[in-house]
Amino acid sequence: MTTDQQVLIVDDETIAVRNLSHVMRKAGYTVTALNNGAEALALLDRQPFDVVLTDLRMEGVDGMAVLQKSRDKWPDCEVVLITGYATLESAVTAMRQGAFFYIAKPFRLEEVRKVVAEAMEKVRLRRENRHLKAQLQSYQFPGGIISRDPAIMRLMEIVRQVGPTGCNVLITGASGVGKELFARYLHQHGQRPEAPFLAVNCGVFTEELLANELFGHEKGAFTGATASKVGLVESANGGVLFLDEITEMSPSMQVKLLRVVQEREIMRVGGVRPIPIEVRFIAATNRPVQEAVAEGRLRADLYYRLNVVTLDIPPLHQRRGDIALLADHFLARAARRMGKPVRSFAVEAMALLQGHDFPGNVRELENLVERAVALCNGELLTPAHLPDTLTALPTSSFQPLLLPGQRKATLEELESRYIRWVLAETHDNQTLAAEILGIDRVSLWRKLKRMMGTEQQSERIDKRADSATI
């Protein structure tokens, strides 16, 4: 395993270059070291770096010139300036010209390591956000569906195949997974995407009101019916009627709906003349559909009429790869609507989101992100803007101490087992795993390298170098 985090060190003092190079390599970075600014400018013309660590005062080409070249040529690069001649004025000038940080001599090497790690994190976060935005465009489909999950991709392929057939479809899935979005996507791939798409939640109306909503009524059909009303089924003629929470419809209403689906005609309340209709019915439920049929919540004959094709949408916790895509989409939309400057998530905040089980699915994620944006006044959304109840810890158990017939594990073996378990729980997401473990990604990389047996015995650590000042 190799790191792709590149550090350029520029200093005309040999001992400073040697000590800084030692610390940066030990931290896991790939290091290039130069002794003068002119060579640095020439190299920066050809090669990008993630972080440039440069002395300010050097013969010929100074650190400000290196800073300017780095920012002009490679905008993603972060520059840390070091100088033994620190003044408030020079620090302000450096920061205004784009320096990430300004360190005065004498300094502790641990201080430099921390600053470079923070600069690296900023570079990584910027690139990850850009990558997410590019992915968002690639994985955003008509109708508002955003996903890169293989199971969702298979469902969308089924939708594209059955869309033109006009057959009835039953969509199942927990509340908040986006059943109506799939219904709309299905309509868009039908024979008449320009035709009406109407939706009704069958669980929010009484039986009488639902009959009136679906089938309409004739003038004088009941007290207060001063004019005829066209129902949703008739209004959707030529298009799609989406029946959400079909299992909440009363048994007698299911009988009436079954006749409409079978006969392709309706009778308005109080009417005497059947009205022919050509409507595609898409029904949805958040209940296990076989259980609903067995319990009598859904008539078997209506189920078979509606269930020509079934789309079972997996919950969000089964497609964690979509969390970052959806969160970034919801953040951008909420920030735009609220006029907020929020642009991205801190890595810790995203780790919390990716570790959450989201019982409310996509709807819960959307509400959570909107709340966080409302509370955030800066560009970066942090864990402080998320609910305290949010946790990134996996919920399954870990029992590493002793397996049947085995000896007790050593501390090193326990650490190895736990790291592998956390990686498995997070689907090899090293950013999230490092957050759960309470270490940075570089430390996790080093532990993995040691665990894989690819790291040779490191040379004796010079503790005095770590605590030295230069």
Describe the structure.
The structure is a single chain. This protein is α/β, with parallel strands linked by helices. The protein folds into four domains: about 5-125, Response regulator (Rossmann fold, 3-Layer(aba) Sandwich); about 150-315, 3-Layer(aba) Sandwich (Rossmann fold), CATH 3.40.50.300; about 315-385, Helicase, Ruva Protein, domain 3; about 410-465, Orthogonal Bundle (Arc Repressor Mutant, subunit A), CATH 1.10.10. The protein has 19 helices and 16 strands. The strands form five sheets. Strands 2-1-3-4-5 form a five-stranded parallel β-sheet, sandwiched between helices. Strands 7-10-13-6-14 form a five-stranded parallel β-sheet. α14 packs across α17 and α16 crosses α17. The relative contact order is 0.09. Residues about 390-405 and about 455-470 have low confidence and may be disordered.
